[in-house]
Structure formats: structure tokens, C-alpha cells
Amino acid sequence: MNYQPVIGLEVHVQLNTRSKIFCGCSTRFGAEPNAHTCPVCLGLPGALPVLNRQVVESAIMAGLATNCAIAHKSIFARKNYFYPDLPKGYQISQFEQPICEKGWLDIQVEGQPPKRIGITRIHMEEDAGKLVHGLGNGSGVDLNRAGTPLLEVVSEPDFRSADEAVAYLKQLHQIVTYLGICDGNMEEGSFRCDANVSVMPVGSATFGTRAEIKNVNSFKFVKAAIEYEITRQIDLLSDGGTVVQETRLFDPATGTTRSMRGKEEAHDYRYFPDPDLVPLVISAEWVERTKKELPELPDVKRQRFITELGLSEYDAEVLTSSRSLAAYFEETAAVAHNPKAAANWVMGEVTRTLNDRGLAINSCPVPPRRLADLLHLIDKGAISNNIAKKVFEAMWQSGKEPAAIVEEQGMAQVSDTGAIEAAIDQILAANQGQVEEYRSGKEKVFGFFVGQVMRAMKGTANPAVVNELLLNKLKG
Amino acid sequence: MELHTLTIQQLHQLLKNRQVSSVETTRALLKRIETTENRINAFITVAADQALAAAEAADQRIANGDCQTLTGIPLALKDIFLTEGLRTTCASKMLENFIAPYDATAWARLKSQGAVLLGKLNQDEFAMGSSCESSAFGATRNPWDTERTPGGSSGGSAASIAAQQATATLGTDTGGSIRQPASHCGCVGLKPTYGRVSRYGVIAYASSLDQVGPVTRDVTDAALLLQAIAGHDPKDSTSVEQQVPDYSTSLKNDVKGMKIGLPREYFIDGLDPDVQRAMDNAIAHLKGQGAEFIEVSLPHTNYAVACYYLIATAEASSNLARYEGVRFGHRATETEGLIEMMMRSRAAGFGAEVKRRIMLGTYALSSGYYDAYYLKAQKVRTLIQRDFSEAFKQVDILLTPVAPTPAFKIGEKTADPLQMYLSDIFTIPVNLAGICGISLPAQPSAAGLPIGLQLIGKPFGEETILRAAYSFEQTTDWHRQKAAL
Description:
Largest sheet of chain A: 9 strands, mixed
Oligomer: heterodimer
Shape of chain A: elongated
Strand content of chain A: 15-25%
Number of domains of chain B: 2
Shape of chain B: globular
Helix content of chain A: 25-40%
């Protein structure tokens, strides 16, 4: 029998607000344990939550960017369970009336037509703290993270392959980082996902029993975890077994999933509206204002790069992969008045040098304006493309302007026929044997002469002028 | 002069004119506590040294010409209010050694005026009870008859007033916990409208019902103390931004033409004859002053107790989850693993009534029961609110008994929780509706036990009930009667 996988995703997006969702404590990562805590996020008796408006703003932005309806009134609810990293014994989340509902994203898997994925809901909630093990004879509780704002984005079970799931995740990741509401750091857990996976016989109308794979924190692992789980379930069913509803954990070391807890151990969270928080009412004006202030989203930007700047689909795709890369490119292109060259340079030298040094575009020491200056020098014919690469390297190191570097290091392109002719004469005189070879028909030697001349002039000679003069001399 | 018998208003005048000092008043009250506590047990913690230091500071402040209403006034707080540096137990073994790192907003406001904190008052454990018997620190006794309970849960707040151990106190009222003990102890107890006073730093029992309020010797003091604690608190999202009126303008004898409703469901056949007599007498008094009485109906009254015990326990089951021994409070030792540690800490830290309510609430919220219990109770709550808003279309305030009987005997109802729960039958609907109510002394029972009269107002209608209460008080002297201790 052939089986059809059915996958749904729950993505946790950690918001990058400065303070926590229900108190004024800092959300900064990496502080001393429990340094960023107060009575509210410690869950002390008598403490009460007060909603951070910036979190609501971020949720509205996420909802608008994923085509959701923004609820005029939404409710916070308590999700009750005991765990030492959960100070109040309940997590404040949203349950029956979330802030965003009924959205969608169009995804594209290579070689397949675009596909619309439904987004069931997006809701706001607080993160838990974390346990620190191996402290002598006990474990510690660090509540710095407790109360960090999260958005949970729940998709419909619309995916039919791991590739579709990954395409969706990448797009969602791109959207939240574009919106500037999440730093997108998957290793630190700022963007993590749970996958619900089931399989059913092809053509079946009812879904199979699903397993939930918890907390997968890279695109690669999501693909591996889902594919492993699909195979596991199909093998199980093919052998006459049954899939049990359970929570499973992905182990990146082995590429497999293993059972964490079964349905019988599933929590009854006893959700109910949190009486400490009044219903959240969002006016139409608030939504409109946010909509107006929404940054250009990747899809729109990509399209604009193609139609307005004349980039290829591939270039537009690469350059819009992150908002900061796109911004870097756009500024360079605008100042240089040469989108194509800017694209080549940003995707080429800039990206390569950043990758070599393990830097992100925000840390690029050459600002877009300077890069544009460099492109100007090339366009004017003041330097060749090859020299420009050296100038770029020098700009990276010294932070100086390209013109100053060219000047200092005598890298200006020489088009003066006198200087070039003199160099050519010298080379030809010193290599009489090769001159004979050329004249007897071995035209390949021509490249050798060009190389020698360029070397003699330290690469500054205008290649077109060299070619022309050399040809005349050799023929003459 | 018997400094321990004074009201806030009287003492304020004396302090302001520098006829007495806060230190000597504080000493007098501490002395009174010392001589009466073995019979009453109103306090869990007496903070003599801190109180005298605060009194000294207050005298200094007064000497510098800064004498606000509560500067130098010795107060005591129900042990549910967090007080920085002074332990807050909520009358539970769970918090036996808990010292909060911050002040409840209501206390912080009094403290900023220079009020003196004598100590922390006994109550039912986590405010769950109507008799002060569920305290892990022993029952409080009623100063009018020490064989009887003072009522609850703010039993210590009322008993300490009746025993003249404090000038005024604060309590909390979730289903009658201020009004019922005030009634049983012959003092004035005010439950403000939900949202009028901040709940920040008040240990939560049932968050949608809990409200802070004063317990005092007379109506004037209730108005003065409410004035000091009322108003929006940015730390409590449920506290309203509505401006606080000047309650002292309500302190005038003027009920002429006021329409007072008598809810038929509260004057049932078989009401305790002493209570019935006190109500009849009160009605006659107010009629005599020109008030107009109209019979009204609150048809869903019968469902209030059931509704309350679903909503309050559901919220409590969640509110009390934080007491698991991880970060503070009682922790069981020599346990195997996390779950056992949490279970045994809770098993040992909580008393029977608290456990009963946690179990009830957990059940009401459980999957499969939520709709039938919690959700239905919320719908009933809406109907009860509607009953009141309908009634208030016809009348300005309502007059009812506070409790079905005068104070009952210690141990009389502890074996039968349902009987105990029914003692709040006339006060619970006010909390469910989120409106305000005041309890003040009416004609005592034949045996000389205090009986309270309840006046219920519209949302933020404190001014109107204070005015009616003040008028009533002017024509009676029951509030001046003192327990013979």
C-alpha cells in the first residue's frame, strides 16, 4: 500500500522586545542566572501580570504579514501544569480567543507549483525558565527566560512532504526577521518548531494517528526528523502495527526520533481565562496604523527587484534572503546607479569575504556607500574589475575610501598608450623566441604576452588598450 | 484617655494638635494586644519593635508639620498582604517562614502616609473559610463571646477592632470575608467595587472576586481608609483608571428620598429571628430619616453559592499551584525526585479546607467537566450581575442582612463544609456581581451578639452606600458598644 504523509507545524517565535511580556525585566540573553527577574516573573505570591504593548504590536505585525484576521477582542488563558521551570504553576497563553486567526502563506518547493498553506492561529504566550543540571547534588532553576514573549504560529495540517514543511518554515523565518520582531537565531532557540506527523493510505479521507516531534531547531533537522518519522510510521503500518499518539523527541546525533511520553501521560492543561488580565481589545485604527508601518515583505521586495531593478529571479531570490542583505544591496545599487554590478558584488566579493570571516552582513566593515564608490571607479574605467577586488580587500582592512587606496597604492588603471607601449616593447625584446612562435602562427602565445605586460605594470594597465597595442606590434 | 478605643478621625485630630504622640498610642495598643491576645488570638505576628520605630518616624513627621490622615495611626493587616521584611503567612504552614521582598500596593499607600503597622492578623488559611478556624496558627475568638468565632476569612481584622487592639485594619473580601466578620464582631467592613483597590501584593485566592477593604470602628473611618487605598495601580491590570471621588463628602446625614431595595430572596421565611428583628429595626430607622423602601427581586440568588464555589475554587486551584516548594515556602525533605517533592510539600503545607477547594477547582476545570461546571458557573454569574443591574434601575442601594445568624460557636460548622459555605449566602452575590457592599452594626441579638446590616451599591457606588451607612449610624449607637473583655 502507498502512504501519504500529513504534516502540521507549530512554530515558536521568540520576540525580540526589550522587556518581558508581563513585567519590565530585560529579555537579554546570557546574563547571570536569575539576574533578570522580579516578583512577577518569579511567580511570587501577590504578583500580577501587566501586558507589554510591544508584544501585541509584534503579534499584529506577524498576523498581518501572514494574511490573518486580527481579533478585535482576544483573551489570555492559563495553561496549568507543574514543572520547576514554570514559576506560577501555569503558563499565561491564549486558548479560545487568540489574537490572530485564519491566515495563509504561499510556499514554493523547487520544481512544483506554488501551494497555499493555511495558518490556523497565532497566539501570544510567555516562555518558561530553564533547569540547570549538574550543580553538585541538585539542579538549579534559572528564570531569566521566564516571561520572554513568544508567538506560537500554528499551521493547518496542509503539508504532504518534509520539503513543503521546510519551505514554509524558511518563509516564515524570513517574514519574522523581515518584520524585525525576532532575531531568527535558531541555535539559541529564537525560532523553533514542533511537527505533527501522520501517514494515511493514499486516497484516504481520514488522517492517521499522529506523533508530535518536539523542539526541532534547524531546517536540516526538521527535514531529517519528518522524513525519519514518515518512514518509521509507514514501516510500522506495513508490518501490521499501529501508530500510537505520543510525543517524540528528535535526536540529531542519530537522525532518529524516540518516544518521550504517551497519550496516557498527556497533560490536562485545564485552560481557563486568566482573571488577572482584562480582555485585550485592539481597535481597527491600531491595526490600520500597524499595517501602514509594516516593512516591505520579502515576496514584494523580490518582485520589485526583478521588475524595477532588472535583476534575474535567482539574484532577486538571493538578495532578499534577509532584510539586512536586501537593504545593503539596495543602498549600494541606489548610490552606484548600477543594480546589476551592485548585485554581482554583493553576491560575490561581499558575501564571500563575509563567509570567509564568519560575519553577518550587519557586521560588514565596508558600508554600502563605499562599495558604491568602488563601483563608480570601475564604471569610469579608473580601475579594472580585478584591481577593484584588491581595493575592496584593502577597504575591508583599513576602512579607507576606495579612491584614496587607489591613489596611495598606485593602482589607477593606465590607459596612456605611451607607458603601455614602452612596457610592451620591453617584453617583446626580452622574449624574442615567443615572438617568433606567434608570428609563425601559434596565436595562443598572445595570452602569455598580455600576462607579462599586466604583471610588469602591476595590473594597472587598461586591458583593452594592452590588447590593441600588443596586436599591432606583433602583427607589425 | 483610652488611646486604644479611638477612631482614626479622633486620633488624627489629637496627633495633628500634638495632644498625643504616635509612640504613646502605639504603646497603648501594643499593651492592649499583650493583655488580650491570649483570649483572642487575632494576630499571627506582632511587630512591636518595627511599629515603635515607625511611630517615632511618624511623630517626627508630624513635628515637621506633615500630618496626613493616616500619619502615625496604628493599623494592622490581614496576613494576606505582603509586607516587605515582615513575614506573610496567609495563615498557612506553607508560608510559615515566607518574608516577602516587596509591599502590597494597598499597604505601600498607607505606609507612604506614615501609618504604623502593629502586625499581621489571623484569617482562614489562604482566605478560605468563614470562621477563622482553618488558620494554621489556631482559631481567632470573638471578643463578644470567646466561645464563638469572629467569622472569616478576615476574622483577625474584625476581632482586633472589637478587642481594641488596632485603630483600624485591612481585610480582603472574596465572598463576604470582610463583611461577615465585621457583622459578627460589631464593626464596619467595606468591600469596594472590584477594581477600586489594587490587588497587587495581596495573596490571591480567587482573582476575579478578591477585593481589599477596610475594617473600622465606624463609617467615617471606613471612608478615610478607603480614600487612602483606592485608585488605579499600573501593576494591577484589573484595577480601574476611574478617578477616586472624595468620600468625605458622603459623610452627611442625608437619605431623604433615597430609594432602598429589599430583595425578596434575602428575606426568607425562617431567617434567624434576631437577624429579622435587626433588619426590621434598621428599615424603621432609615424610613424615619426619609428613605423610601421598595421590594425588588434578585431571581438568581439561589444559585449564587454554587456558582461561587465553582468559580472561586477553579481560580484558587490555579492560583495556589505556585506553592510547590521549589522557590519559597514549605518544602518536604528526604523525597525521591521532583514529583514526590512537590506532592509531599503540598500535602504537608496545605490544610484540609485548602486541599478541598483545590480539588474542587481542579475538577471543575478538568477536560470533560469544564463546560458543565466552570463555564456554566460563568453564565450564572452573568445572570446574577444582570439581576443587580435590573434592581438598580429601580433603587439606589439595597438593604439586606450580612449573615443568616449572629456569630456561631467554634467547632459548630467545621464538620459540615456545606453549612459553613451557606453562612456567606447574602454576601457572595455582591462579589459575583463585582459591586460594593458595606456591613455596619445594627441592633444586636437578644443575647447581646452583634448583628450587621448590609448596604449594597452599584458599581463604584461607594459614595451612596457610605452616605446611607453614615446616616444610619447617626441615629444609632450600636457601633459605640464595646465587647466586654
